[in-house]
Amino acid sequence: MTEKNTAAVTGEKEVESKNFIEQEIDKDLAEGVYDHVQTRFPPEPNGYLHIGHAKSILLNYGLAKEYGGKFNLRFDDTNPTKEKTEFVESIIEDVKWLGADFEDRLFFASNYFEQMYECAVLLIKKGKAFVCDLSAEEIREYRGDYNRPGKDSPYRNRSVEENLKLFEEMKEGKYKDGEKVLRAKIDMSSPNINMRDPVIYRVAHMTHHNTGDKWCIYPMYDFAHPIEDAIEHITHSICTLEFEDHRPLYDWVVRECEFENPPRQIEFAKLYLTNVVTGKRYIKKLVEDKIVDGWDDPRLVSIAALRRRGYTPESIRRFVELVGVSKANSSVDYAMLEYCIREDLKLKKPRLMAVLDPVKLVIDNYPEGQIEELEIPNNLENPELGSRKVPFCREVYIEREDFMEEPPKKYFRMFPGNEVRLMGAYFVKCTGCEKDENGNVTVVHGTYDPETKSGSGFEGRKVKGTIHWVAVPTAKQVECRLYETIVDEEKGKLNEDGSLNLNPNSLTILKNCYVEPQLAEAKAYDSFQFMRNGYFCADCKDSRPGSPVFNRIVSLKSSFKLPK
């Protein structure tokens, strides 16, 4: 989604600054290079999408929408060794969830294999491609490096007829994997190594998730991708910076394959987020080693994981807008993503009471057996969310940290002799506590002042502390999960051997939490603010009817400040 920042105001007219991609598109339209805009998001279905892909999805979709164009979702499924239908389905779900509407334009590169094959035959006939018998290792050796030019393959000057015959035999399955490849014939002395006769087809006797066993030769990405774009009439092929050096090959392919009005590749900076794991091989290992419970484990930043944790499409769209579009790689603080979800939820969600580390408070002078219904606002910052009835009685649960027998200075919660307000209820003065044989507090005691009921207009003495609570008889016991980054922020992401430096505290499971009765009916993805504890979402995998499991989306406070 493209970001529009007001650069200046001249008189009554706003001058909007456009990012460099929009400026290039404007130029192409003005000069008549294209008469429309068509973009695409082209994932390879070899894993789940992550937050970086969200930037690409929203950028490509946003550009198409901005210019009244079209947006395609196309799977670059040219490598059957790593691709699965599971990944295809998850990607479709993610793109739809983010709100990027590809309408009926869902495509697969594998549907174009016949046209790609014909393009390869055309290159052979033009003397622009040849079948090579060198091994992968020999091809690397012949290619040279940045300090020395490559040298021609001994098979480079095969005749057109021989190349056509050999390529047909490759297609018919007469050769083993790696025995022969088709290479473009460009320039082995090019300073751009990508142009040194790159491999464009290889033999791979593997079943493809979409085409089955129809093909045993598969195009390489750098050959397939520009052809896919050209077939779909993509105008602007927006990709990340690592493809900048591949652009000359992209242009060579669409030119030599004789596509009319070919697409144009434009590169932008990837989204790098601090203290997260996005590499597919790392996530795959975390999944296989059962360190996480799947690609959607809430400690990850796959789009499915963020959705499961409780992030919203709106928060991710806002995050992508704040990050913006640039040509230079940089890292974004994870705290910015957390800021965006807080901002999205703070006025939308009810603020309910949940006690995560409970200790019982007995109000000794409150009538035994009495339960009264208190009217409590759902969100003081958004009166439109209304109010709810909350049961109150003689025994309530409070957070263990809200009582101290010998408190430090400026501790305004419960301690012997101190008075606090129970949120939405009454003033309660602490009178003492009970302990077990190990000295652990088991029960806190207090007395309440019936004249101090919230909403009654009481204007007497003031108290400095307000704490939340849940009535014991009606409280529902639930499991809450608290998350931290999966990598150790202080030690860095990687160990010396290249393995991930994992945070042993990335997941804390609290099974003895008590919540207001209505929270027991929470359904998958329902989210709430738990007063003073953060925003929580009912887990989509492990919640059961009447027994939800809550994931903490984000804590309530952060040191992050939005740049001015």
TrEMBL record:
The Glutamyl/glutaminyl-tRNA synthetase class Ib anti-codon binding domain sits at: 350-449
The question of whether Transmembrane is a record keyword is answered with no
The record's Gene Ontology cellular component field reads: cytosol
Q: Its Gene Ontology biological processes?
A: glutaminyl-tRNA aminoacylation
Domain named Glutamyl/glutaminyl-tRNA synthetase class Ib catalytic: residues = 37-346
Q: Which EC class, in a word?
A: ligase
Q: Which domain of life is it from?
A: Bacteria
Q: Which Pfam families match?
A: tRNA-synt_1c, tRNA-synt_1c_C, tRNA-synt_1c_C2
Does the keyword section mention DNA-binding?
no
Which reactions is this enzyme annotated as catalysing?
tRNA(Gln) + L-glutamine + ATP = L-glutaminyl-tRNA(Gln) + AMP + diphosphate
According to its UniProt record, the EC number is 6.1.1.18
PANTHER family from the UniProt entry: GLUTAMATE--TRNA LIGASE, GLUTAMINE-TRNA LIGASE
The record's family statement is:
Belongs to the class-I aminoacyl-tRNA synthetase family.
**Name of this protein:** Glutamine--tRNA ligase
- Organism of origin is Candidatus Enterocloster faecavium
Q: What lineage does the source organism belong to?
A: Bacteria, Bacillati, Bacillota, Clostridia, Lachnospirales
